[in-house]
Amino acid sequence: QVQLVESGGGSVQSGGSLRLSCEVSGYTDSNYCMGWFRQAPGKEREGVAAIDSGGSRAYANSVKGRFTISHDNANNTLYLQMNSLKPEDTAMYYCAAGRQEWWLILVGESYQYWGQGTQVTVSS
After folding, report:
1. 3-state SS, residue 37
2. What CA–CA distance (Å, rounded) separates 93 from 47?
3. For 87-121, what is each residue's pLDDT tens digit?
4. Other CB atoms within 10 Å distance of the CB of residue 79
5. Using one digit for the tens of pLDDT, what is the confidence trace for 7-66?
6. Helix, strand, or coil here: 80?
7. What is the CB-side half-sphere exposure of residue 40 using CA atoms within 13 A?
């Protein structure tokens, strides 16, 4: 019943920007956390950014200062604004939702619901 649908991926040159969106439906837990994760071929899944129900945010060190996570309560949509993109940002990006303690907010295994992913490709 819970669904997360990502959109906004694409191809961009190094230094460019993209904004990913995640439309959430069927999720009613008031203590939810939502996050963005990415996985490149041959690499492990990486937590990129996450936000809890109170609006506190967490970021991977590799994206601090470049990416911004936000949530629009009016339309229940999660966003990831990605600026100054680098080739190493190339990956499939996934939106996730769940309930977990703060210290697990960037740990993918702690999330219960996942979207289908959207591809981001950054060329040099």
Report:
1. strand
2. 10
3. 999 999 999 999 888 899 999 999 999 999 999 99
4. 18
5. 999 999 999 999 999 999 987 777 789 999 999 999 999 999 999 988 999 999 999 999
6. strand
7. 10
